[in-house]
Specification:
Layout: E1 11-13, E2 25-33, E3 54-55, E4 60-67, E5 73-79, H1 89-100, E6 107-109, H2 130-157, E7 161-171, E8 175-182, E9 185-191, E10 199-207, E11 212-219, E12 232-233, H3 236-248, E13 253-258, E14 264-266, H4 272-290, E15 295-297, E16 301-311, H5 318-327, H6 330-344, E17 352-362, E18 366-372, E19 374-375, H7 378-387, E20 392-398, E21 404-405, H8 408-413, H9 431-447
Parallel strand pairs: 3-12, 5-6, 11-13, 18-20, 19-21
Antiparallel strand pairs: 1-2, 2-4, 2-7, 4-5, 7-10, 7-15, 8-9, 8-14, 10-11, 16-17, 17-18
Helix pairs in contact: 1-2, 3-4, 5-6, 7-9
Length: 452
């Protein structure tokens, strides 16, 4: 296979012989190292503008391609990245479709949301001074990544072999709510009594000769053990967890998804040692699950993809926005200024944001809900209440990294998670929660989920 854009990358994939064995599932997996080769700024904290100084662990993109008995194929693509933005995703989807025929509706692009990974951007290059050179490196990295991810999926489709699928759920103890109530409002501090999702769902993919091909696992927690003072490239706790699982099971791909982590941080946090500790806890729990009696997953696989029209707050006046931009909470000032400037130019602000989401139904055994954005933990409860609690995996940080998605209660309470769209052109209304839940229900019905 000719892969000119990936010549300098480390690519690992798995070949299999055609055994002629009939199987309900076929699967292929592959991974590629996506550690930046040039200086780039780290993503996740606005205060950091200089490139990383060293590397604590390589970053990876990994893929699992599934094929059911009917020949339907679907892709789960995991990345050690801060997030895949809406302007990045189309080229990846198109590349995958061109190489494999698998369409956007059957592809999950996900990310670990590490805050110690490379800044991603496709913004226009500028003059070549030192600061702009770092940005040019980020653009070059992002453009190359788009091609690498499409190439990676093609490789995995060439190594399909019979597999069995099983799943179960474990527990992650270090996940803590970060919305602390104070006399001055909501602040970003540990709140042990606040709601989070501490579940650790795990999908096991085993070959016909009983070897672990891949394991996909999820934690609903920010990858922010390493704070803004960190200048070392690292996958944070999820990177360490994946590396440790792969050391336990040589030849297998350990793949990480992020759950509804918008209002959850690791606790304690702040050092590389703690990132390794949290990663070890996850790896030990994944190992325990892999060695336990897991529930079998049968086919067929049905998928549904759509966009939820999430309602934004009505535009405020230019005067109100000016006041917020000057005196409001720090997390609202930037977006208030952008909306003020847009209205000053007589531009119309959007009334909704079209947020992508998908629901995958594995026979009668498992429903995977994949939401976009930085979804807060309240959507776990809302989704469970809407379509049932059983045989359900709720993921987030998929498809489109557009901003935080708060619940109606969080919108009323305020705080950092109400900062709205990252493009600065809207704050979500209380109605957005119902908009998303209704879209989930519609897709769940479409794929035939039984509302347990």
């Amino acid at each position: 296979m000719n892969m000119p854009h990936a010549i300098c990358a480390t690519l690992v994939f798995f070949f299999s012989l055609n055994t002629g064995v009939h199987a309900e599932w076929m699967a292929g997996t592959a991974r590629i190292k996506i550690t930046p080769e040039k200086p780039v700024a780290l993503a996740g904290y606005a205060s950091r503008i200089k490139p990383f100084t060293s590397i604590a662990g390589d970053l990876w993109a990994k893929v699992l391609v599934l094929e059911d008995e009917t020949g339907k194929r679907a892709v789960i693509l995991t990345t050690d990245l801060i997030g895949v933005y809406a302007d990045m995703a189309p080229a990846i989807y198109e590349g995958i479709a061109e190489r494999t025929g698998i369409q956007k509706s059957d592809i999950l692009i996900t990310w670990s949301h590490t805050h110690s990974g490379p800044r991603l951007t496709l913004k226009e290059r500028t003059s070549p001074d030192s600061a702009n050179q770092d940005r040019d490196n980020s653009i070059e990295y992002t453009e190359r990544l788009q091609v690498q991810l499409a190439d990676l999926v093609e490789v995995a489709t060439r190594s399909l072999q019979p597999v069995t699928l099983e799943w179960g759920t474990g527990f992650a103890s270090f996940v803590v709510n970060r919305r602390q109530r104070t006399e001055d409002g909501i602040r970003l501090n540990p709140n042990p009594s606040g709601h989070v999702d501490r579940s650790l769902p795990c999908l096991k993919v085993t070959t016909a000769d009983s070897k672990l091909m891949a394991v996909l696992f999820q934690v609903a927690c920010h990858n922010t053990t390493l704070g803004p003072q960190n200048d070392v490239l690292c996958g944070d706790y999820s990177g360490f967890a994946q590396k440790e699982v792969e050391a336990m099971y040589p030849g297998a791909n350990a793949m990480f998804m992020t759950g509804c982590a918008g209002n959850a941080n690791p606790y304690p946090r702040g050092t590389m040692e703690l990132a390794r500790k949290h990663g070890n806890e996850v790896a030990m729990e994944v190992d325990r699950l892999l060695k336990s009696d897991l529930a079998p997953i049968n086919g067929p696989l049905k998928t549904a993809f759509d966009h939820a029209p999430l309602t934004l707050q009505p535009p405020k006046s230019i005067e109100e926005l000016e006041s917020i931009a000057t005196h409001g909470p720090n997390w609202l000032r930037g977006s208030a200024a952008k909306m003020r400037d847009a209205l000053s130019r007589s531009e119309t602000l959007p009334s909704h944001y079209e947020a992508p989401l998908a629901v995958w139904q594995f026979g009668k055994d498992l429903t995977l809900v994949a939401l976009s954005g930085e979804v807060v933990s309240g959507y776990v409860l809302a989704t469970q209440n809407a379509i049932g609690h059983r045989k359900l995996w709720i993921g987030a940080y998929c498809h489109d990294f557009f901003g935080y998605l708060p619940t109606a209660q969080i919108v009323r309470d305020g705080g950092y998670e109400t900062r709205g769209l990252f493009n600065g052109l809207g704050w979500f209304s209380e109605q957005a929660e119902q908009d998303m839940v209704q879209a989930i229900v519609t897709l769940a019905k479409k794929v035939g989920r039984e509302f347990y």
